[in-house]
Design brief:
Helix content is about 80%, strand content about 0%. With about 70 residues, it is mostly helical.
Amino acid sequence: MPDLFDFFRENESKLFERPPEHAWKKLEDRLEKRRQGQRRTIRFLQLGAVALVILILLMAAGLVWYFVRQQGQ
C-alpha cells in the first residue's frame, strides 16, 4: 500500500494549479443562488414562528376567558 506522504509528494505540483476564470464565475453564481434561497427560507421560518406565537397567545387568552367565565357562574 503506497504511503500517503508519497502520494502528496508525487502530486505536489497539482496543488498550485489555478482553475480557469469561468470556473470561479460559475461557482460564485451557484453560491449566490444558494444564498438567496436560504434568505427566503429564513424569512419564511421567521414568519411561521411569529404566527405560531400569536396563535398560542390567542389560545391562552381564550382559555383564560373561558375559565374566568366559568368561575363567575
